[in-house]
Specification:
The protein contains 10 helices and 8 strands. The chain is of the alpha/beta class. Strand 7, helix 9 and strand 8 form a beta-alpha-beta unit. It is 35% helix and 15% strand.
């Protein structure tokens, strides 16, 4: 599909800054939904997933996947849930293992390629719906695009469209970008939260987790080297990145899929956006607006983000 350089996104001046365009939407102008009900799905390995549901007996379901150290309570999840619910979708907002407010039972938690849990949620809920769409943001965007292209799962024929917003399709490159000095505040926030979870997990699995390794962690790559990788069966950060980056799976995509990545995203390397793969693919669409930051895309007069509205158009075209 042709690459779409979207000039129709024209935010106000403040939102043209990469960092302000990221931070202002995070802290202001967001919608809060009070009608979620929590459903626990038991996993085949004796663990659980908590999924927050809006069930209004619609015939269409949107499964929503949050970013690193987010949850179903993240602002961007509430925003897209409100938009899609207004447009006759029921909602299933995932909380990855360890992200629902209650630590999961198993050693494993979640990571950028843990698509087996997405497949489980879809298969657990699909019987009540004729059409399903899958949305992901940031880390969740890598997950859903990877899932769209994987051959490891027999995907539901009801899955009609996949959307990834601010997708880190190359995990190693993203890790390097987020460790730049200009991104110190973001990385520090992620590390504080991740290290707190590892400390909690170590109380349950003292033989498998070496808490002394926390002293070695200076950046996200270190965390993935000592914890994310080994906990989830990878030799370290590099193997984890190589095997779970969604750009390895783009050629396998047979479901209409949309990636929206801003040129000025402070977390991503715009020089390696999957332009060539999208141009060669019948099913992958890539939209690259000049502005938007990371999971931002606000600064217009609409209460919803430009990316969410663009995604809504895409899924309506493909249902």
């Amino acid at each position: 599909m042709p690459i779409i350089d979207s000039q129709d996104y024209k935010p106000s001046a403040l939102y043209r800054s990469a960092h302000l365009g990221t931070l202002i939407p995070h802290f202001s102008g967001n919608i809060k939904i009070k009608s979620f009900s929590r459903r626990r799905i038991n996993t085949p390995d004796g663990d659980f997933l908590d999924v927050d549901i809006i069930d209004k007996e619609n015939d269409r379901l949107a499964v929503l996947c949050h970013g690193l150290e987010g949850s179903s309570d993240s602002n961007y999840i509430h925003n897209i849930a409100a938009l899609l619910n207004e447009n006759n979708f029921d909602i299933a907002a995932m909380n990855y293992r360890g992200c629902s407010g209650e630590m999961n039972k198993k050693l494993r938690m979640y990571h950028s390629g843990a698509t087996d849990d997405i497949d489980l949620v879809i298969s657990s809920l699909e019987s009540n719906y004729s059409s399903i769409v899958l949305f992901g943001y940031s880390l969740g965007a890598n997950m859903v695009i990877k899932y769209a292209g994987e051959s490891a799962f027999t995907k539901s024929p009801k899955l009609k469209a996949v959307v990834g917003i601010s997708a880190p399709c190359d995990l190693a490159a993203c890790s390097d970008v987020i460790s730049k000095p200009a991104n110190y505040i973001y990385e520090k926030r992620f590390l504080i939260s991740l290290m707190e979870k590892v400390n909690e997990k170590a109380k349950l699995f003292a033989d498998e987790i070496n808490r002394n390794d926390l002293k070695k962690v200076k950046n996200l790559r270190d965390f993935d080297e000592y914890f994310t990788g080994p906990i989830h069966g990878f030799s370290g950060a590099q193997e984890y990145y190589e095997l779970n980056s969604s750009n390895r799976f783009l050629e396998g995509i047979t479901i209409p899929s949309l990636i929206i990545n801003a040129l000025n995203d402070p977390f991503l390397d715009a020089s390696i956006f999957p332009r060539a793969q999208a141009q060669e693919s019948e099913h992958l669409h890539l939209v690259i607006p000049r502005y938007g930051g990371h999971v931002g895309f606000k600064g217009t007069r609409n209460k919803y983000s430009w990316a969410d509205l663009k995604a809504k158009e895409f899924i309506n075209e493909n249902l």
